[in-house]
Every structure is written in structure tokens, then in C-alpha cells.
């Protein structure tokens, strides 16, 4: 069984963090390079479906070609007799599973769950699966499965006349003052509709898994943002104890919210493995990544702003709609930024959800905040234009000094500092206010600004820290690294606390047998896990020092010291008197081969059940407004676009973003995540759109040649500036969320820049050339 | 992908004989064949590998013109110093096509044979109706998602866009396709869909592209390929134009002009009306813009592709003005 571990091989030693004085690269706050980088660039890193198992068989899915209706019959005869075929799964022979607890912790209904079903609610739904000795045989046989349908009319998208107004989601309603009346009497009013299309996570590594049963023990190699949550799902599906399921996911080739759950195809592979008594590999194809699970729901928002003649907001009236599936519920919280970005005495936000024939939508980098910011940050720009003041000035004029919704102080809000630092670095003061006033030949130049925010989500994690006799330190956690840098920052944390070089720390992640962790989503993992490792490492260090002081065989026994310090793996008295010995020497003299401590971020009185619930659902996650403060990350994007006046093509030519994520555990990696979010935001603004054939209810651009994400050629240099300060209310070590913040506000900053360049306000993403030509 | 037989040809004659068998297809770089086999669009019984044939990957350029072997890689032709200096539009069309990885694999002969990106053509499981794939079955694209579809050269049977960039430049400069001893002008090599969109090329079973010849011309030497698209790289053209110009001795009056459009038509589209309108005229912006409107004479949109009718003449005009400016 492969156990994954990462040893820190190389560090940029002595290179300090420029923003912070002289922090060593390997300490918390240092710019240590990704410790998993060499394994990835040399190909040594093995991803889930690259595992080699004896007797491995291959499953291929058959998908519905209609968007609504019922399977009349499935003819499997030809497929079953095709070469190499081991099993053809259909709704008629698929195992009956239990419905599992959902991620919110909702107790499941006492009803069976079948990952293959006859009722069809979207195009691309799994209808059957073929398992064969080879992948090619499975592909060939899957093409021989003949499915006939009774087709019904589908509701293809939000604009379908059959879609209706949808279901009001009362929990999304936020109201104070009298927003309608205040809007009606405001001297300046703007009201506009803002739309975002279906968007997809498009991770470089498509989804897939290898499932292997040994008796009633299930091992699953599957890319995962949440090992414990997914292990619980498999356990409940198959009615086996949680401990019987082992999920292994040392490397993840991008998730962006899409890899936190076990999906229908996961169940299909696990069922096939159980029925065949052999390991089964199921690799989701790129086209299937558009329907095997959901991307970001299409959204519609109406934002009405009432203001006085100086642009001070008196009322915000916001209405939002997002699509969900026929039989699943996804709420994309569209009022999440609307309600906190600006001070307003009157506010109303409501949201409906509309059922259409699609796979149930899911999380994509900053679900809720991302489309929400597109609405409010476009609208405030329209208000600035209406009133005739600078888009940056109007944001300062309406600055929220406290959380306008819950009326609590911000834990920290460095947004004013972000505006100032970004504007200075960008040269905003040189902007000419009139649209179409800046030009370079055929290129119209526009400068836009927008703000972004993301709440500090807090949850729980455990870690073991082990100090070994060879002087190395091991960290174990079932949390994961999908490229954001968990291996690296946990090595830095343990190294700093224990007092050893980071290259002596081995971090082991991505195995559900390790100490537990909640979901890696909502930008919470770094804050949670540095906290857990900090506590575990502190406890391990205390044990080490305790042994050194009290053990009769310790060289420090005669010193009668109260404490000792460990630096670069060597133990000494803080006063410098007495001996100095290595960890190896100490553990040898006291006869121990290791010291081990568990640490967690749970409340001290937590029960076993509490802990299970905390790691396998988000039911008990702490609200970002719990207690005395409202906790959020903040950012301001300043973006220059060049629009070809003949062709309507938009190119982003300059980005300066100033961001407040509190304390950065590793500025190099945080900057990289911010840039990644900004790059995704550029794609969202200009390129990304799932296009539905309205006759068939099917996404037709379901591949990476036709669903466009930004390429290197689309991305200019991106300057990011950290304006954060440690936030003790947000996490143990003072950090706030990083991963999702960067994308929030990019699309409206670009749309605002396009308006400044062209005088055209585009309120439907993406801003493609035909909208400007 | 279903099982198929694999043959490695060791002579051009052997390749042509094998390719004449029913269900046989030639394999060169494989960037189209493998892609379409994965989509279930092509299901060859026999794949005839011609990549080991000797002498088909050379590029020779002299005062008469260029001769490009069918197996020359897109990337090596794009980087060829003589192609760059004497046929800049050809080099520019190549390096703006596809990704670097694809350009390193794909061959020039295979590039001419690439198939449309029509999403309905590429998804037989979901869209059985496609006259290009199954003659007489209908066209799923008409009435569907048409943003990328053609506005020129369409028929009631098919509106699929010819996707390539290179062939646009070849058509502009009267390149010749060599099928062994038979030669055919590139403009005639590509067929309009009319009632038989399954027939895309004037090539018979058992014929094989062996080389592309491009006659030397002053217009080719002063040429460019302009490709416009939403994404800066790795996207098919919303509209493209291959343009070359030759001036009279005064350096201002247009003596010869070549214009071809890509990304907007069912085949690489020579815009002779634009050429004729500007020959003998001074190259001035207003004149060029007016004449460029002739590029889309007869264009018909299918809804979402209407913008191409606006865009294409602007791309043509910009390209003409660009080559006109460069001394």
C-alpha cells in the first residue's frame, strides 16, 4: 500500500519575506517554495487513476442523450457479448445503496439510492456502465449499449418560458429599513440586470477513481477535497462502518470546489468493484466533466441603487435567481456581497431558485460571492457614472465602517488600505473620467476598479506531530493539497514550533487513516490546519522539553531548568548554561524512539459524535459572524483593458490587486493563489460560458477547445499587494481566507474597464466580441 | 474507439493501394484522426501509417516558389526562414493555428484534411443527424448553437465552417495540391457542401497528398495572416484573413492583391471581388474599408453567427492596411 509523504528537499534559505522584514523562508510567513513541486514536475507524483493494481478492470459510462423523460429499454446484448466485457450495469441490476447524509449533515431519508436510474432529468445523466478487461474494450462495448427513451419536454435554462419564477429561498432574505420606499424617493436611481452563465471548474486532472473491495473493507483512490466527508458517503451508501472505508488522495490536479463529494460515477465504480470482486477504474472523460457533476449555476440579478446627489447610497434593492436541477437543490447566495460591501440605511435582498433540466450545480471558486460581486460592483460603477464621480471615490464615500447587516465591527478590514495601495501602484489618479477618452491606435483603453470579499469560514482539524529519534519531524493529517500549498505551510508550521529545519519535516496528507480534517473548501484549510499543527507541535515540543528536564537519564536533569529551547534541532538552556544536545542524542539517552502528540482545533468538551460530525459534515462550522466580530477577507482590483474598436476583442493588459487575507503563512504561495483566482476571473469575464442547445437541453461546448478558459497569452503581468494584518479573531495564527478571494471582483472590474474603454455597459458575462462589435 | 488494423506503408504506392481499401484511412500526425476516433466520428477498419515514408517532409524554396512535403510538420514550416521571408502569411497562419504541441505533431497534408469543429458533427451519440457524417440524415446545426458556423458557402444541407488557417493562406496565393502526379488548385481542392457535404475534398480513394506547391509572387512576399478571436491563442478564428499586396512602381497604387477569408465559410474563401475592386487604386483607408465589404457578398447568417458578417470585412480591411503600411 503506498503511503504518501513529502519531505522538504529544498528551501530558499535565508531569503526573507520582503513584506515582513527578515522571516526565514522555512518559518511561518516565509517564502518557502512548494515542497511537492519536484515530485510533480518530474512525474514522480502519482495521481489517483495512475495507481497500478493487480486485476484492475475498467468502467466506462453510458449517458442519456435526452434531457427529460424516461428510459424505455436498454439493450445490452451486444455489449455483453463484446470482447473482454465483464459486466454491464443498468438500472435493472445495479446494487441498491442507502441514501447518504448530505454535506450539510441533513439526515438522509430512509430510501434507496441508485446511481443509475430510469427517470432522466438532464442530458448526460448516467444510464449504464460497461466494465471490461481493458479501457478500449469498455469504450467499444459502451457504444453498443442501445438505450431507447420516452422523451418529455425539458426546461432548458432560466430563460425557458416553462421555468417560471422559481422557489423563494426565505433563508436568503435580508432586509433592514424600508428599501423600496427609500429607493423610490432617492434623488439618483439606477437599476439594472446582471447575468452570469453556467461556468465549469475544468480542473486539469479530470475526475475518476479506483475502487477496491477486500471483504467489507473498501479502498478508494480518488482526487478529493474532503477525504472524511467522502469516506462517510461511501460507508453509508454500502452500509459499512466509516472505519472500513479508506480514501487515498495524495495529489489533486485542481478541484476548485468540484472534488469535495463522491458522485454517482463514484458509486458506479464501487458497485462494479463489489460485484466483480476486482478493483475497478473509472476515469471521467473531459466531456463528462460537464455533466457528471455541476459547475457554477447560471444566475440573474437585479440591483437597484438609490443615492443622494453626492452618490451616498440610501437604498439597495436586490433580487437574485439561480438555476438548480429538477431533483436537487443548489443555492448560490447572490446577496452575500451585496449586503456587506457598502453602508446603506435601507436594504432588501431576496432570492429564488429555479428548477431546470441540468445536473445539480455545485461549488466553483467563491460560490455566491463571485456572482454577487459582479452585480453590486457593476452597479456601483453605474452609479458613479450617473452621479459623475470617480468609481474609486464613490466606493470610499460609501465605505462600510462596520458590517451593515449584522451591525458588528469587522475583525479586520484593510479594504481602505487596499484601495490606496492598489490605486497608487496602478496610477489610478491619471485616469481620465470620460468613456472612450484613452486610446492607442485602434485600441480603446479602459481602466476599471472593483472590490471583492470572502467570509472567513472556520472549521476543525486534527493533526499528529511526531518527533523521531533521527531528529526528523512527521506531520500527519487527512487534509489535502490540491496545489494551494498545504504540504509546505504545515512543514513550515511544525518546523518553527519544534525548532527544526523545514527540510527535516515530513508531511503526510491525503489518507483518511490519518487524523481527521473537514472539507478543503471555502478557503478554510490553511487557517484550520496551521492551527491544528501548531497545537500538536506545541504539545510535542512540551513533551520533549518535559522529558529533557525531568528524565533522570537526560543530560539536562542536573540543570534544574524550568524550560529549554530547541533551535535547528538542538536543545539547550535559554541562558546558554549546561549542555547542548541534538534531539537524537536526547531521545537516545532517555531511551525513546519517538515523541508523539495529537492536536486539534475542536472545543475541549467535544464528544466522539461531535468530532465525527465536525469532520464529515459542515453542520457545525462556525459562522463568520459568530461572537463579537464579522470576519472577511477583502480585496480591490485595478484592471486595464484594451478593446479593439473594429473587432470588439477585449484583452486585459494590466492588473494590480491589493488584498487583505490577514497574516500570510507563506506569501509566495498566497500570492500564487491570488493570481490563480485573478486568472480564473479573467476567463470568467471574457471567455467562459456553457452553451446550451435549446432544443436538446445539452451543453454543446463540453471540451477545452470550445469551452474557453484563459491561456497564458491572455494573461498580463499581475501585481498583487498584501495589505493584510494578523487577525486574531479569524484563526489561531492570524490568517484569513486566500484561495477564493482573488477571483471575487475581477469580472466587474473588467466589465467596468470595458465601459470606460467603449462606453458600452455589458451586463451579461462573458464579454465576447459580438457584444462590443 | 473500436479495434482496427494497422498497416505501416513503406512506399507511396503501397500507401495509396492500402488507402484505396474500403474503410481505410491514412495516419500522419494523427491530431485529427485520433481526435475524431475518440469522438466516434471516424471508425476506420484500417489505419495506414505513412509517417515512415522517406522524403515527404522537406521544404524547398526557390525563385519559382515553395514546395512543401505533405509530411512536413506545421511547426517546422512555420519556422522555415525562407517561408517566413517569402510567404509570411503562410508562416503566420501556421503559428497562430492550434497549440504548440499540436503544431509539433500535425503535418501539412493532414492539416488540409482537418474536419470541421461543428459540435453537432463531433457528437454522433447525441446528434445522429449530420449530412456530413451520414448523408441524408439532416443537419442538427441549423436551428441550434450556431455561433461558430459559416456565413458564406453554406447550403440547406450543411453550415459547418472550414476551421483551418493555413489553407486560407494557400488559397490566397494560388497554391497547388500535389496528389502524386495529379495537381489541383487549392481553391478547387476544397468543395462547397451543396447537397453533398460529406464530400469535402476533390480527392479520390487511393489518392494521397504528397506535396503543396506555392508559386512565388510579390504579393506573397508582402503578406500577412490576421486571425481574430475571443481568446488570444488556441482558438479557431471568429474571422481570419490572408492578404498579400504588390504595388506599382509608385509604391502606392495596388498592382496585385490577394484576399482570402478563414473562419467564416464552408471552405477557405477567396475574396476576388475585393481584389478586383482595389487593383489599380491607391491604398487608402476609406477605399479599402468600402471594398472590403465585398468580401461578404452573399453572406447568410443563422442567428448567433450574424456578427461574422460585421466582423469579416473589418478583418480584411485591417489586414490590407497592415500589409500596405509595412515597407
TrEMBL record, chain A:
A GO MF term: oxidoreductase activity
UniProt KW keywords: Molybdenum, Oxidoreductase
Gene3D superfamilies according to UniProt: Aldehyde oxidase/xanthine dehydrogenase, a/b hammerhead, Aldehyde oxidase/xanthine dehydrogenase, molybdopterin binding domain
Source species, domain of life: Bacteria
Domain Aldehyde oxidase/xanthine dehydrogenase a/b hammerhead: 42-153
Keyword Signal applies: no
UniProt keyword Oxidoreductase present: yes
InterPro entries: Ald_Oxase/Xan_DH_a/b, Ald_Oxase/Xan_DH_a/b_sf, Ald_Oxase/xanthine_DH-like, AldOxase/xan_DH_MoCoBD1, AldOxase/xan_DH_MoCoBD2, AldOxase/xan_DH_Mopterin-bd_sf
A Pfam family this chain is assigned to: MoCoBD_1
Position of the signal peptide: none
Protein name according to UniProt: Xanthine dehydrogenase YagR molybdenum-binding subunit
Species this chain originates from: Mesorhizobium tianshanense
UniProtKB/TrEMBL annotation, chain B:
Key words, A-Z: FAD, Flavoprotein
SMART domains, alphabetized: CO_deh_flav_C
Pfam families according to UniProt: CO_deh_flav_C, FAD_binding_5
Organism phylogeny: Bacteria, Pseudomonadati, Pseudomonadota, Alphaproteobacteria, Hyphomicrobiales
Keyword Flavoprotein: yes
Keyword tRNA processing: no
The FAD-binding PCMH-type domain, residue ranges: 1-219
Descriptive protein name: Xanthine dehydrogenase YagS FAD-binding subunit
